[in-house]
Design goal:
Layout (H helix, E strand, L loop, with lengths): L2 H32 L3 H4 L7 H7 L1 H14 L13 H6 L1 H32 L2 E2 L11 E2 L4 H23 L7 H4 L7 H14 L3 H27 L7
Antiparallel strand pairs: 1-2
Helix pairs in contact: 1-4, 1-6, 1-7, 3-4, 6-7, 7-10
């Protein structure tokens, strides 16, 4: 691993840690507003990553850092506790709780997009000559702004990935629980029962979702670039 790859890996991990913390804190806050204080009492309505790391140390520290060091692939997970009885009584509130996490990621993505356009307007950023997942903007001049440009780029790309992937309607992703917002309440109960019944096979469902996402993400990526830079030709 070259020094440049190591620095990029550190940036990606720090952005992952902060973005995942925001995602789970949004779940916890939405649940509290909806009447379930399980996560709130566990200290997870916070942007401090420590309570979230204590709950999922492998998903938030061990696995993502190992993935970056071994092959450059960033993988990880986190979770916020909730009361299953509350979810059964209020499936639609639970659906809104599920959407709160991706909404936090999309908010961070939009903030990054705003910073990119602000930087271009101020002359410190410029559109990149070539775009990849970790490079949505370049510094206009070498120096400290190069690091800022890379951080903002990673914020934009990683939160786009986290938000869209979690919306897949596959258990245990947020998009599956959010189905309760568009189906009859009885169907929502059956969907939740099925999610619990597959138990350990949920990991296989995640693998299927990841393979499916390979085909979905390219057009999403292309659309994001066209929205970020309306005059830029891509693809």
């Amino acid at each position: 691993m070259t020094p440049e790859q190591l620095v990029l890996g550190m940036i990606r991990y720090v952005v992952f840690l902060f973005s995942t913390t925001c995602h789970e804190a949004a779940h916890a806050l939405a649940a509290k507003i909806g009447g379930d204080e399980t996560a709130s009492l566990g200290g997870q309505v916070t942007l401090n990553p420590v309570p979230h790391i204590r709950r999922e140390p492998f998903g938030m520290v061990v696995v993502p850092i190992a993935g970056l060091l071994l092959g450059g692939m960033l993988m990880g997970w986190a979770s916020a506790p909730y009361d299953p009885d509350w979810q059964r009584r209020h499936p639609r509130r639970a659906g809104w709780m599920s959407l709160a996490g991706p909404a936090a990621n999309f908010t961070l993505m939009l903030l990054a997009a705003g910073l990119i356009h602000l930087g271009i307007a101020l002359g410190v950023f410029q559109p990149p000559q070539s775009i990849n997942f970790s490079n949505f903007v370049d510094a206009a001049q070498p120096g400290a702004w190069e690091g800022v440009a890379r951080v903002v780029s990673v914020f934009f790309g990683l939160n786009m990935l986290l938000g869209t992937f979690n919306l897949l309607p596959i258990p245990p992703l947020d998009g599956y629980s959010a189905l309760a917002l568009i189906v009859p309440e009885e169907t929502a109960h059956k969907l939740e029962e099925w999610r619990h019944s597959i138990g350990q096979y949920a990991f296989l469902a995640l693998l299927v979702g990841w393979k499916l996402f390979d085909y979905l993400f390219d057009p999403i990526f292309s659309l994001a670039i066209r929205l970020l830079y309306p005059g830029l030709r891509y693809g």
